[in-house]
Structures are given as C-alpha cells and as structure tokens.
Amino acid sequence: MSVRHFVGDVAAAATPDHDRGLAYGDGLFETMRAHGGAVHWWPAHWLRLERGAQALGLALPGQGRVQQELEALLDGDGGVVKLIVTRGAGGRGYAPPDPATPHWILSRHDAPPAVPAEGLSLRWCDTRLAVQPALAGIKHCNRLEQVLARAEWQVLRLQDAQIHEGLMCSTEGDVVSATAANLFVLHDGRWSTPSVDRCGIAGVCREWAIGALQAREARLAVTDVEAADAVFLCNAARGILPVARLGARVWRPHPEVSQLRRHLAAEHPAFATEVA
Amino acid sequence: MSVRHFVGDVAAAATPDHDRGLAYGDGLFETMRAHGGAVHWWPAHWLRLERGAQALGLALPGQGRVQQELEALLDGDGGVVKLIVTRGAGGRGYAPPDPATPHWILSRHDAPPAVPAEGLSLRWCDTRLAVQPALAGIKHCNRLEQVLARAEWQVLRLQDAQIHEGLMCSTEGDVVSATAANLFVLHDGRWSTPSVDRCGIAGVCREWAIGALQAREARLAVTDVEAADAVFLCNAARGILPVARLGARVWRPHPEVSQLRRHLAAEHPAFATEVA
User: Fold this and answer.
1) Contact between residue A58 and residue A96 where contact means Cβ atoms under 8 Å apart
2) pLDDT band at A118, cuts 50/70/90?
3) Model ipTM?
4) Measured in Å, how far apart are chain A's first and last C-alpha atoms?
5) How far is B43 from chain A (nearest CA, A)?
6) CA neighbor of A48 nearest in space, from A125, A140, A129, A185
7) Interface touch A15/B18, C-beta < 8 Å
8) Which domains does chain B have, with CATH numbers?
9) Which pTM does this prediction carry?
10) Taking Cα atoms as reference points, which of B140, B139, B170 lies closest to residue B235?
11) DSSP B275
C-alpha cells in the first residue's frame, strides 16, 4: 500500500494538523477499481464527488491534478485506489473555515478477492441507518453506522465464518443496502434497487446497473428481499456480486445475474478477467 | 495553538496513515475547559469517553498517560484542550482492525470569548439531527449535521450578524440542542432539557446542570422552547450561556440563570472570573 497526501495543489508528508476530516468526518471519499494504470469509471466517481462537495459546501482540488497523481500512483498497474477529500484545516468548532484549502489523500490497495463462484452469503445487520435526507446519496466520511454494522459479524466470526456481507435497514424499516455495496432484487422479471434519497449511498456501479437493467428505484421491505427471484450486490471495487444465501434463504445462480456480469466484463476492463 | 500526536503510548509527529478517524469519523472527542494547568471536569470527560468507547468498541489509551500529557501541554495555563481518540490505523473497508492501537491527539486552544452580558441570540436551524439510538449521547466524530447547521448562519452572516448559536430539531421534530451546546428551558419553576437517547450529545456541563437544577429530561417541542420563562445553553468550554433572543422571541435576564452561573463559578475555577 502506498499513500500520498496533498494540501490544495501541494504535496505534503502527512495529513496536516487540525484537519476537519479527522475532527468531524467533514469530507468525502471514492473507492475506485483500477486496471492498466487507469480508473475506467473516473468520470462517474468525479461526478459523485462534485455532488457531495455541493451538498457539503466544500471545495475540491482540480480534477486534472487528482487524475494525474492517481495515474502516477498506479504506475501502469491495477487494484483499488481510494481518494479522500476533506474540507481542509480549520479552527476548533463546527463553523466551516472560509476560505479553506482541501486536503486530499490517495492510497493504493490490492485488488479485492475474486467473487466466490458459489455467490455471497449475507446476514441481516442489527445496526440501522438513520434517515438524513441532507446527507443521503453522497459518499461522505461519517460512516460509524457502517463500522458498527460490519463489526457485528466480525465479533461473531467463529460462529459465522461464511458471512461475506450484511444487509442494513433504515430506522424506518426499509431495506437500504449492504454495509459496503448496493443491493438489487428481481421480482417477476423486473429489477429494483432501494432508493437512496433518505439514507444510503448512490453507488457508481449501482448507477451503471440501473441503466443496464432498466431497474427501478423503490422502497423495499425485508420481505421483498426474501421473496425475490434473484439478488445481487454491487460496488465499484468488486463489480457484480451474486448472492447465494441470506440467513436461511438460498438462491441458485440466476442467468440474468450471470449475463449482467458478462455485460460489465465487456464494458469495464478490470472485471473482464473475473468472468469465465 | 499547539498539537501533540500519539499512537498508543508513543508520541508521533503527525496522524499516521490509514487513520480510521480520518476515513470514517471512527473516533471520539472531548472539548475541555482548563484553568491553572488542570481540567477541573476531567473525571466526567473521561467517563463520557469510556461510554463512547464501549458503544463503538474501540480501545482507549491509558487515562493516566493522557492526563499527564494534557497537563504537560497546559504547562500551568488555562484555555481549552481538545482530545481526539480514533480507533487507530486500519485497512481499506469498514471492518474494525482487531487488535487496534488507538491514535490520540491533544490540542490546546485559547479560552472562548466571554459570554455576552446581554445574553445570546439564537436562530432555528433548518438542518435536522437524524435519529440514531446506537450513537446517541456519545461524542463521536461523525459531525456533518452540526457542520451543515453551523454553516447556515455563516453564509447568512451579513444579514444575521448578531446570531451566536442555532437550535436543532431531530428529524422527528423534537428540539435536541444547539449546534455546540445543550439546552435548558424553564416552565413554571421547573427546568427541563431534551433527552439525548435518540440523538444529541450528553454534555458534561449538561450533566452538572441537571444535578444542580434537579432538571428533568424530556421530549421538547419548538413551542415548548418558545413558551419558556427562561432559556440557557451550556457546554463544558463556556459554562452557562443565558439566552436573550430566539428569532422574534425575547427573554429578559432571569435570576435563576444568574444564580446558576454563580453556582458554577463557585464550583469550577475556570468560570469564577466570568461572573461579577
């Protein structure tokens, strides 16, 4: 793993003191799959970052500069690149500094493990997602709910060795997503995915899959998921993740999910090698 | 301002890479008033930190070591000391590292401005606090809601030059707190303060004031605040803050608030100088 820090346009040795990201989670991030030294979905990641920056009223570094540093970090290789952009340094207290110079951090990580051929095993998380329309959809750095949810089956790992991901409901009871992936369900030939206007994240791969499947965004109940004909998760780092099990519910591999994986492999070079 | 960084028991030059506080707001903080080289409410601050660490399942550094470094940083003086404790460094992804070595940061700041003699002017914030019982009460580092709320009247500052603080409601409509202070209201000789079991922070000065006033914790509506006989805010950095105005509503100085300020001044040396 390697990490590079920047303050505005200037490289730095580490995150400067009084960083608002560290103090308040006052920042945004993107987790991006790379292949051959480039991030195929870069325009979509940057667009989401811009939406988040508008919602939080924070300044972004120049897109060209970030892309240049990202490609330098990749140096022709693939894997996963994470970008964090924080509001920058500020004094004590919540008032956003104005003007502020954003801090940004690029880090490079190994490619995630290949998708299990048999599909993922899921559980329901006890931790709920709070309803907050002002922050819904964007990929901000306030992620304690996901940390608590993910810790649920880390603690239980001896009993629950086969769990790959957990599904989360909102405090209102709607199904929203997995801890680190969006969710799609098939009913009577029609795909749907939970709306992310009250909580949850508008994933870059979710966006792609909505277009590819002509999926609808909907409020989904627990019973809607358990009664589905097929289920998959997706995120920009791992692509399409077929689901085989959710608690006692078992699904056989579904041809539409396999077809979607081939579709993604044909469009996104990082996922081409994973599909037979 | 001066800042000191630690990784477990070891001093560090800066926050190490892959810090979970920066990535996810996966940490806790305390903002403490100091006087004569010591933090008078240190036991209460540490107790709240322990409650937060239990809720998040994160390890704290040794209390004695933190207190020793805090007093070294103060070097006999007063002001405000901020302590941030994060879960430490971790890999990409939400799963908490286990074991993890906490990162902690001490920073020293000037004492806040004296409380305006005429009392504070408040406004209602548009930004709401999401209801999340799993995180309610603790002083964690996911504070984007407070940042957005505080930014509301920063942007409006030309029109709203006299605004000192803003009150926030939950997404369910209950009044919770100011952006950086707890709230107390008087009705018919009885003080009450909003419950913090669904959202909000269990402030150290709030705890003190509940005891001093035999105040009750309650769900409060906007109309309960506007109909109150007297209102004050409080936090551990500034003590008791009388409120003079909330939008069009005006309150005269109330003898019970003045008396509470004298009571605090008699118990807490940092606030002794501020009361005539």
Assistant:
1) yes
2) confident
3) 0.96
4) 29
5) 22
6) A140
7) no
8) 2-109 (3.30.470.10), 120-274 (3.20.10.10)
9) 0.96
10) B139
11) -
